[in-house]
Design a protein that fits this description.
Elements (H helix, E strand, L loop, with lengths): L5 E2 L5 E2 L12 E2 L10 H4 L11 H14 L3 H16 L3 E11 L2 E6 L17 E4 L5 H7 L3 E4 L16 E9 L2 E9 L6 H44 L3 E5 L4 E4 L3 H5 L3 H4 L4 H5 L7 H11 L4 E8 L10 E12 L6 E9 L1 H21 L7 E4 L4 E5 L1 H7 L3 H4 L4 H5 L1 H13 L1
Parallel strand pairs: 3-4
Antiparallel strand pairs: 1-2, 4-5, 4-9, 5-6, 7-8, 8-9, 10-11, 10-14, 12-13, 13-14, 15-16
Helix pairs in contact: 2-3, 2-5, 3-5
């Protein structure tokens, strides 16, 4: 009794096992419909039904698999050629979605032409346990497996009950299977067939690696784009580097702060860009060590502007405030650095420091007790020598403290009204 044709949820039909030679090499839920109808598939079997030369088939198939832009297309090419070569009545392309300790989740690969190649069909999704022969063994052990399809095994939506023998070729990515080709009722594989399967398995693995690499690059580019967009909207001196401090992106206005264009700095260490042509190399070494520490940091140092500014080669003070962030998808670490020109702040600080030194020199030797206070919060700024002797407090010990803490509540209560009135 012929096995009825099965129809996939996306409209494709599974070939009839009783259809004879016409069904040979057909891929169930084939990822690339054109591959089963093109001249490559027709050439896989000679007019007399003899197997093609394995070396010629391997070389021809290797070229076509390499030319395919996706793993799905490569699987389709391999299914169309290997099925007839092995004498299989049907070839099923399987997709592995998840790995578990006791097996893998598998379903037939849908037709990408239908627009839902990544769709998970719960009705077709099954758990292939590691001890199940030959499918579970092949996917769990990452080895080609050939053996009987037992009646008492769990039902597989893609495998007719009358199938007696199954050969499974897994496609691996790292230490896990991502896909497989399942051949129904093929001839027992001899040494030539096993060598061909091994070669094709390696080529399919390379196709999976290429696709994963492209996907990872796309994810990184998307994440990097979002990070760059965020940085571009938050700070004009923003720079994104890798964990070694190599600049990957710089805000378009970075040149206004540093005098270095974004095209000039990309791919170079941040410390080399900022501390170039500076006599003292210690800040560059310190900045490099901060990057290598793998922690967030903030550092200030003297730098020199580049040529793309109004004052090239001018020395200025720069602050680098760096936060370490992780790509939530890949876990890759990057630094987001805010580079600020703090020359004016440093000059003001220097002026204050100089003013304090002059004030200290003028007041230190006056024959009266002087207490310098911050009028905003009545914190002690300094004491002269006579005040230190009179109140029994050292200038270094009370500087920055509240008046009540530094000189006692009684004196604070006496002085506070006069200070507020002033």
């Amino acid at each position: 009794m012929p096995f009825p044709s099965l129809r996939s949820p996306r409209g494709g039909s599974l070939p009839d096992a009783a259809a004879g030679p016409a069904a040979s090499g057909a891929a169930v839920g084939t990822p690339d419909q054109a591959s089963t109808e093109g001249p490559a598939a027709a050439a896989a079997v000679t007019p007399t039904g003899a197997r093609p030369a394995p070396l010629a088939l391997a070389l021809d198939l290797a070229q076509r698999l390499h030319a395919r832009g996706s793993l799905a297309g490569a699987l389709s090419e391999a299914a169309a050629d290997l099925g007839p070569f092995l004498g299989a009545t049907r070839t099923v392309v399987l997709r592995v979605f998840d790995w578990r300790a006791d097996g893998v989740l598998v379903q037939p690969w849908a037709d990408p032409q239908g627009g839902d190649a990544d769709c998970i069909d719960l009705d077709a999704l099954v758990l292939a346990r590691a001890q199940e022969l030959p499918l579970g063994q092949a996917l769990a052990g990452l080895v080609t497996s050939y053996g009987p399809s037992y009646i008492d095994q769990p039902s597989r939506p893609w495998r007719p009950r009358e199938v007696m023998q199954v050969l499974v070729l897994p496609v691996r990515l790292g230490l896990r299977a991502v896909a497989a080709l399942e051949f129904h009722d093929p001839a027992a594989p001899d040494d030539v067939a096993r060598q061909l399967l091994e070669l094709v398995g390696l080529q399919l693995t390379q196709a999976a690696q290429r696709e994963e690499s492209l996907r990872t690059q796309w994810v990184h580019a998307e994440q990097y784009g979002r990070l760059a967009m965020l940085a571009s909207r938050t700070a004009r001196g923003a720079v994104i580097t890798d964990v070694e401090g190599i600049i990957e992106w710089a805000h378009p206005a970075f040149a206004e702060t540093t005098g270095h264009s974004t095209a000039e700095v990309r791919g170079r260490p941040l410390w080399e860009v900022l501390v170039r042509d500076v006599d003292d190399v210690r800040p560059a070494l310190l900045l490099r060590e901060r990057f290598r520490s793998g922690e967030a940091f903030r550092i200030e140092f003297m730098a020199r502007r580049g040529a793309v500014c109004l004052a090239p080669a001018e020395a200025y003070w720069v602050e680098v405030d760096a936060d370490l962030v992780a790509d939530e998808t890949s876990g890759r670490l990057q630094y987001v650095c805010l580079c600020r020109d703090i020359t004016e702040r440093r000059q003001q600080q220097h002026g204050l420091d100089e003013g304090r030194k002059i004030l200290a020199a003028l007041t230190d030797n006056l024959p009266i007790s002087l207490v310098a206070l911050d009028a905003r919060d009545l914190q002690v700024i300094s004491l002269n020598r006579l005040a230190e002797l009179e109140f029994g407090a050292a200038d270094e010990a009370v500087a920055g403290r509240a008046l009540t803490q530094a000189l006692g509540p009684g004196l604070a209560e006496l002085i506070s009204p006069q200070v507020r009135q002033a």
